[in-house]
Model the fold of this input.
Amino acid sequence: MSEPRIDQPEVHGRSGPSVVWLIPILTLLIGGWLIFRTLADQGPEVTIEFRTAAGIEAGRTRIKYKSVDIGVVEQVRFAEDFGSITVRARFDPGMEHLLRRNTRFWVVRPEFSLRGASGLETLISGAYIQIDPGPGSPQRHFVGLEQQPLITADEPGKTVTLVTERLGGIDVGSPIYYRGILAGEVLGHELASDRRSIYISAFVRDPFDQLVRGNSRFWNVSGVEVGFGAEGPEVRMESLQSLVFGGIAFETSLQAEQMTADVSDLLFTLHDSYREIQERAYIRKLNYVLFFDGSVRGLAAGAPVEFRGIRVGSVRDVSLELNPETLDFRLPVVIEIEPERIMDVNAGPPPEQVLESLVERGMRARLQTGSLITGTLFVELNMYPDTELVRRGEGQLPYPELPTVPGAVETITASIEKLVAQLDDVALDKIAANLLGTLEGTNALLNAPEVARMLGDVEGSMRAFRGILEQMEASDMEATLVAAQGVLRNLEETLAGATAALDPQSPLHYNLVRMLSELEEAARSIRALVEVLEREPQAVIFGRGGDE
Done:
């Protein structure tokens, strides 16, 4: 029996992918999609560099814009050079348009200073990072600010640039005033490339920014401005805030011609004071030189030049010159006269010709005292037609000479010196010796016992005479006695004055000798009259020996 034949199996290869791989492929696609959606939903990621990480914690510190949370800090680490801190933060989706080149970040913490307190809400909620969006190209790495900026990018207003030679109390945050109203603040300052000027960046808020134009003028109002003028001391202060933090004020002249309102490319000068602005308002200046004989102590550059109380210029320079040949000194004083203050320089003859005509008619300069407290001097111009025109300058002078006359102080000083010189020629020692001898003799005469005895006799005679008159009042001689009483009353007053004049310190000593002799003779006559009246009272009417 033959063995049965076994057929060999035929193996055929499968064409196409296997269904087994479909599951991992689907898993990979779904996972990728989920990862993409997760990354897309996380929002943009940025890095911010700060000097320190004070108040910043990973996972807790929020990023806010207008008090709304828009991100969170994910990581805080050192920079590669360990000189700063790098903060990695994640923003909410849709915040990409806020992350541009001029965007600013800063940490809001509680701060206390003379300007006030800020960030007090962080005492409960904790510190957070504030964002101030700005223009520019998209950016993912930023350098954070160490202090909170004074203004934000969305605040309406206008930024101006000022230039000055000294800050004079101006600092970041110093207020800016318009007619005493707070209108803005100083953003910062930096030294110019010439190492002499200082640029100040200032911000003027709306609506005051509409008042800033090409002809606006700025001046420093920091601290207290104290001055001494002819009217006395002057004290000016813009506000208490400007006294502590410094300040700037500005104004804009209202002219018919409208000046440009675009000041982004303009550079304004910051003047030291408003008085400086007024002085620089007059462009045309005429220089003259003056020569004074006396001292010019108290006269300094900047002192006013006035004509009958109205300022017409200022003193430019005061110097001392020595002539090496004659060894004589002279004091040239250079002044600036601003003709626009007193005339229209664009009409009529030139100002130089007008002033020369005034000099020929008697205009002279002299020094006057501006303040008795400080002793400051100023130059006064006035008309003195009776004075001689004398020019004291010799040789070539840099400017025309204006003749001078002695001032009031020089005149008084010369008079005093002349009086002192005359007193030196008087023999005062001899006059004093004679006067002392006269006073000693008068003192001895007044204290003599004869004078006291004489006054006693006069007083006794007067008492007796008054008694006789009292007895005669009841008689028919009333009219006659009234006249006699008047005479005696006048005599009594005269004697009382004479008694007062007998004081050793009285200035009437030099006439006392002659007066005493005449008084003694009058006393004798009165005594004789009294004796006659005591014996014969009717003698007043009928005479001596008459019948009643």
